[in-house]
Write a structure and sequence with these properties.
Elements lengths: L8 H11 L12 H38 L3 H5 L4 H24 L26 H18 L4 H18 L11 E5 L5 H8 L3 E6 L2 H13 L6 E3 L12 H4 L3 E3 L13 E5 L2 H4 L6 E7 L8 H11 E11 L18 H11 L2 E11 L13 E9 L26 E2 L4
Parallel strand pairs: 1-2, 1-6, 2-5, 5-10, 6-7
Antiparallel strand pairs: 3-4, 7-9, 8-9
Bound molecules: S-adenosylmethionine.
The site of S-adenosylmethionine has 18 residues, from strand 2 and helix 10.
């Protein structure tokens, strides 16, 4: 018998679960028919999440109201503005819902090569409860509007996007090459601002994004919003803690801070939808790949490095800025391998990349609420590596070319898993 107390049944069960490691495998491919059905269901699930927002957030406010009303009368009297503030919050929620409604209203036909038919599960316009997970994604997407398309996000973009843009300009000087012939890929493009900025400088730029929350929203801002600061969101209303004043919670943020349609007329800018690793299989295609707050979204970051290595042209560069907040680290049943920067750096070099620039400490924020009493600061790594003209690494023997489809602005393309 082992030393110490015997384990109780629950502990044993926990241990059994512990040994059931999530298996590292590529995504299971179903038959084309099943894939279609799953995609359609996912599409409608996300549309439903957009529609459910108001109900979800109003319920949060209702809970606050119930709790306030349960306080003794003399305590309630100390806060005469508390309930009026909740009414203001409700108006902000209604307003956000109108924007979300506008976002989803025309996304049924947003993909060039795909129609999603009718919502089979929902009967007509009936809204079904959405998961907390999806509601959190939606709230993050609302905050991404601040980072990408508002004056408020300018400082954040200066910290995160500008170093990348500067490296694109330095490596492909516009007075020495034709920028329209330089192909830049931005995987994990979010709401598309970095890709848009690169295209705005005349480079041929493609953003790629996996999340339908982001894709619906970037489609809206890139294709449907042309009036500078013409629209308003209330991104901070979901934050009930760490507010210095009630007014901070209901601060409006206007967007877009630039007209997304103001790109030079002949510029080649596009967005693709789907998993970066599934879509980009064609070897030696890109002159530059720019990743910002992206590589830690991988189940296995080595797969990302390999894909980037494969699809970069010999002589092409990979620019990266971001932290290593591994997205799958704490998700049950998800494979996740969390490597330190030192380990990633070593792998990059083993692949054969040449390190051309490295800054190990670039402070930056991510969708920061600048009035909040809690603020996160990331200490990012920033590097530029080059795939040499001649490669010697054994992994890089040419494989069969895959296909990659491209869509020109303004329409998006759906490709692979979403
Ligand atoms: C942390 S966000 C960064 C967004 C943007 N680059 C920025 O700096 O604001 C990471 C983005 O990568 C997207 N993403 C995650 N895995 C992806 C994949 N396999 N292919 C394409 N996009 C992916 C997510 O949906 C998310 O929008």
């Amino acid at each position: 018998m082992a030393d110490g107390p015997e384990k109780c049944r629950e502990e044993e069960e926990e241990e059994e679960k512990e040994t059931e490691y999530p298996v590292y495998r590529k995504r299971i491919k179903h038959s084309a028919e099943v894939e279609e059905r799953l995609e359609r269901e996912h599409f409608w699930k996300i549309i439903n999440a957009f529609r459910y927002y108001r109900i979800h957030v109003q319920e949060r406010v209702n809970r606050t109201e119930r709790q306030f009303r349960s306080l003794p009368d003399d305590q309630q009297k100390l806060l005469p503005n508390f309930l009026p503030h909740l009414d203001k919050l409700r108006k902000c929620i209604d307003h956000n819902q109108q924007i979300l409604q506008a976002i989803v209203s025309d996304c049924i036909h947003m993909f060039e090569n795909k129609e999603y038919g009718e919502d089979k599960k929902g009967s007509g316009e009936r809204i079904r409860p959405a998961s907390t997970f999806d509601m959190d994604k939606l709230k993050s997407t609302i905050k991404q509007f601040v980072r990408d398309w508002s004056e408020t996000g300018k400082m954040e973009r200066e910290a995160c996007y500008q170093p990348i843009i500067n490296e694109v300009l330095r490596n492909f000087p516009r007075d020495q090459c034709d920028p329209s012939k330089v192909n830049v890929l931005v995987p994990g493009a979010g709401l598309g601002r970095l890709a848009w900025e690169i295209a705005n400088l005349g480079y041929a730029c493609q953003g790629n994004e996996w999340s339908l929350f982001m894709l619906f929203s970037s489609n809206f801002v890139l294709n449907r919003c042309s009036q500078v600061n013409g629209l308003t969101l209330y991104p901070w209303i979901h934050q009930f803690s760490n507010n210095k004043s009630p007014a901070d919670q209901i601060r409006p943020v206007r967007f877009p801070d630039v007209n997304p349609h103001s790109l030079p007329p002949s510029v080649n800018f596009s967005m693709t939808a789907g998993d970066f690793q599934e879509i980009y299989t064609e070897f030696d295609t890109w002159d530059c790949i720019a990743t910002c707050f992206f590589i830690d979204t991988a189940h296995n970051v080595i797969d990302y490095i390999e894909t980037i290595w494969n699809i970069l042209k010999p002589g092409g560069i990979w620019i990266n800025l971001g932290p290593l907040l591994y997205h799958f680290e704490n998700m049950a049943n998800e494979f996740s391998i969390e490597l330190s920067y030192e380990e990633i750096r070593s792998i990059i070099l083993q692949y054969g990349f040449h390190l051309e620039l490295e800054r190990a400490s670039v402070p930056s924020t991510y969708t920061e609420n600048e009035h909040s009493m809690l603020r996160y600061l990331y200490d990012c790594v920033f590097f530029v590596v080059r795939k040499p003209q001649q490669q010697s690494f054994p992994n890089c023997a040419a494989k069969e070319n895959g296909t990659e489809k491209r869509a020109a602005l303004p329409e998006m393309e759906r490709n692979g898993k979403t």
